[in-house]
Amino acid sequence: xxxxEKEEISVEDEAVDKNIFKNCSKIAFYRRQKxxxxxxxxxxxxxxxxxxxxxSTRFQIINEATxxxxxxxVFGIEGNIFRFKINEETPLKPRxxxxxxxxxxxxxxxxxxxxxxxxxxxxADEKGDLKCHITANPFKVDLVSKEEVVMSINSLGQLYFExxxxxxxxxxxxxxxxxxxxxSQKNQEDLGLWEEKFGKFVDVKLNGPASVGLDFSLHGFEHxxxxxxxxxxxxxxxxxxxxxxxxxxxxxYGYEIHNKMGIYGxxxxxxxxxxxxxxxxxxxxxxxxxxxxxxxxxxxxGPVDAKQKxxxxxxxxxxxxxxxxxxxxxxxxxxxxxxxxxxxxTENG
Length: 349
Fold this sequence. Notes:
This protein has helices spanning 28-37, 168-171, 335-346, and strands spanning 43-52, 56-63, 69-77, 81-88, 108-109, 112-114, 120-124, 130-135, 140-145, 148-153, 160-161, 195-198, 201-204, 212-219, 223-226, 245-247, 269-274, 277-283, 289-296, 313-320, 325-330. Strand 1 (43-52) and strand 2 form a beta hairpin. By secondary structure, the protein is mostly beta strands. Strands 6, 7, 8, 9, 10, 11, 14, 16, 19 and 20 form a ten-stranded antiparallel β-sheet that branches. Strands 1, 2, 3, 4, 5, 15, 17, 18 and 21 form a nine-stranded antiparallel β-sheet that branches.
């Protein structure tokens, strides 16, 4: 008697159809940022524009190519938190800022300006244990804890900010084009400058593209966690040449495991951990966001001293479709401290 063959059942039969969701190659703001960043345009902080208010320190940042100014603000917040915002100095209209997530106005602490070298600004908290070292040209921010640089912002030069523009039909009446647009690209549909298509959906951008991006280098860190709502391993993996982690409000049935695509909500909160220090980055932006991760582990330098190693580092590149750059740097130093810092911002009571 022959044994009947059993019908093979594959979980892939019920897996989501990837064609109905975007990957990086189909996301216009990702392609634009990658293309522009390859040209190595740099930003410079204008430290002669620094003003100090009750809650924050402000200064201008300017792109060397476009000469359009941005406004940067640095806040010290109770509980060892720094807040860093970048917006257009004079936007065509108010850019979207996320309401309701920060449950009450954070209680700020005054940051004092310490003496720095020419081309540098140093801001310190009341105790002096935490400092922001701001380098003017090229623009960079180092977060220093007890004389150790634990995080650098824009050290890879990936700051990116698209300025709002007047609608196309009104542009003909202007004597010259807005300085923030690359006129050689404005008719390229592939870049999705004014209109972006995906399947049957058409996204018309009345004021043009408005994406933002920024990089963070975490010194001595190899272990990253967070940005949940992905069916991936607990420890975040390098993205490499693959798709970035996508943060987008979805409801995906039959999702694949070990995949970086978003499956439910968007929680732009990332943790980094090493012996003796835990950090958190809270990227307050509700638009579609992509996160690239690249870890360079510590490597032994040579046979002379077996213990001698180059310092490990993890680079994190955040890119969002619109809004402003609004980040909270949770400096720990312990895991409990980071969780307390995050909950102080996002929980009532």
